[in-house]
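Hi R.,

Here are the chain sequences for the assembly we discussed:
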Amino acid sequence: MPARNGAIVEARGIHKHFGALHVLKGVDLTVRERELVFVIGPSGSGKSTLLRCLNRLEEPSSGAITVDGIDMLDRRTDINKARQRIGMVFQSFNLYPHMTALGNVALALRRVQGLPRAAAEAGARQALERVHLADRAGHYPGQLSGGQQQRVAIARAIALEPRVMLFDEPTSSLDPELVGGVLAAMRELRESGMTMVVVSHEMGFARAAADRVVFMDAGRIVEEGPPEAIFGNPQQERTRAFIGQITRH
Amino acid sequence: MSNWDRFLDSFFNARVAAEYLPKIIEGFWLTILLALCIILTGVAAGLALAVLRSLGIRVLNWAIIFLVDLFRALPPLVVIALLYFGLPAAGLSLSGFAAAWLSLSLVLMAFTEEIFWAGITAVPKGQWEAARSTGLGFLDTFGMVVLPQAVRMVIPPLTNRTIAITKGTALASVVAVQEILGAAQAGVSFSFNPTPLTLGALAYLVLFLPVVILGRWVETRFAWKR
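And here is the predicted structure of the full complex:
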């Protein structure tokens, strides 16, 4: 199915069951090229599950997902090839602790894209430069701060030159003073034209950078719109209650 | 003769020691050979089983768990006796060395499989997800990301268990292998003096103390920088 109207991500009628638990109840999400979509909602609302369905880390129970024109749920799709077009950044960084920052970024370049070691390391160094960590290339994750680790994780994803980046609460396990560096890296990525889907509660960042905010609750998208509308003038009662709670502090 | 002299004469008799030292040294080298063979095949087989188990093929996993539980439950001496005294009845006879090698390899394999498996399952799920999200396949993820971490994690229990089972080479004396203990016991029965056993104990110390120390070194060497 070709992408319509410049859409890179197109999810239709996504349902996800974990045993008896119905986590996603028919979610539709379209992300256009160069768009930054923010997904917010209370914990357990299904926002992370939705994100993980997009690159099939979770198998949706039903529905259709195309990313960059590739049917992600088709059994004949080479999922490893498709995933190279979708970068993902996790809450807990998930860097490989036995490899240096450079090794972390270079691994997929070598093993997935088949580049020789020198070319892979050159590509990895470039990606580290984009998150301003070229000087930390030889450090192991355990020798880096949380914020630096997360930026290495971003470099690991962008090194593959993906068409879309998924961020799953990228700053939630960081100390407050380390959040800024990660958000700055995300902002630069955004300015370079990257399409991004971000699950996060960084409201300031959402207001400043998001094109669209999607509010999810209980497995459904309740409301979506530009950040000023969702934060300033939410139409739905549940959205108002949630926005009220997170902005009160 | 005082009690003290009798004690010295029994356990530290210089004449007997000089006579049987060459035999003990021969046993020493045989023990090293046997131990190396056991470690090589036992650890390799244990790792292979753990890798097979992580493929998640149900029937295969039942078979692996059965095999592993079997050899963890059986006393090593019973396995050696079964193979050495039992197999000839089936028309297949093993030398004492081969019986000890095979038996202790099977026991070491069983324990190391469990140790490697524990390490593999202890690697956080996020490591799998991160690697798979970059397009790495199952085998690359397993081989480049998960297994190296699992192996580093299990180095301490692995060295401990390997040393414990390698000491079981002494059991081979039961099936007429002239390793350290076998040579020492033969010396005792020829000389009517337990001094060869003293030599044997010393030989075990000379052999295993460095191994224990090496184990410590390996543990620190393989820990990644934090």
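DSSP finds nine helices and no strands in chain B. The mean pLDDT of chain B is 90.

Let me know if anything looks off.

Best,
T.
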